[in-house]
Amino acid sequence: MATGRRLWRALSEPGSWTPRRPRPVGALLGLGGGLLVTGSGVLTDLLHNAPSLYLLSLGVPLVAVLLGLPLLLGVSRKRHLAGLLLLVIFLLVMVPYGFRSAVLDRRGEHVRVTVTEVRQGRDGRTGGATYTCEVLDERGRSSWLRGSERCGPGTRLGDRLAILRDPGDLVGASTSDPLISFPVLVAYTCGALLLMAVIGAQAMDRQPAAGPRKA
Fold it and tell me: What's the whole-model pTM score?
């Protein structure tokens, strides 16, 4: 109960919570927020065959990070807040695309496929039209294309395409060659997570104390 009250106070009164060791706690909060966003990005790729409405639920961790992290850290300096937001945006863009690209770069195979189905949907965030295409290779193995320049309003049944896909279907197929390898993905992601930890430590350490310190 005491922990719950402290958490509620920290969220409702930004800057009111000062732990005994502010820098390590701030670093853990920044790192934890970055890991949550990174995990959501990886899940986006792993669940590429899941319904769109299910994938939208991955936005919950993002909202929790964007709203909860500044409140818990008591971020009052604009440079700290701007730094955290830029790093979160970077991870949102880098991780989903980078993970798929890295998997395809390591074990992807080029195949010729035929479009067998085109599904039109609606993006729950922007309201625009989205297209998902099922394609079939010469051996009868099917794959799905999403968010591709070769799968759109002009795509027709029977169209022939060249795609790059993962034989294990861990991530979605692509119509373009990968640009990001695993070493690049790991280096950039770890760098962003480290910066979030540093900013979290600085933000927590510099917030003014509000009353006696509590654990």
Answer: 0.72
